[in-house]
Amino acid sequence: MVELTYLAGFGNEHQSEALPGALPVGQFSPQNCPYNLYAEQLSTSAFTRPRAHNRRSWLYRIQPSVCQGLFQPISAGQVHTAPLVDPVFTPNPLRWSPIPASSNQCDFIDSLITIAANGNAASQIGVAIHWYCAQRDMHNRYFCCADGELLFIPLTGDIELITELGRIQITPGEIAVIPRGIKFQVKLLAGPASGYLCENYGSPFELPERGTVGANGFANNRDFLYPVAWFEDTTATQQIITKYCGHFFAAEIDHSPLNVVAWTGNSAPYKYDLARFNSINSVSFDHCDPSIFTVLSSASDTQGMANIDFVVFPPRWVVAEETFRPPWFHRNIMSEFMGLIKGQYDGKSTDFKPGGMSIHNCMTAHGPDSTTFDKASKADLKPHYQADALAFMIESRYPISPTKFAFNLPQRQINYHLCWQKLNNNFTGRI
Question: How far is CA 427 from CA 91, 303, 374, 424, in A?
Answer without folding.
Answer: 27, 40, 15, 9
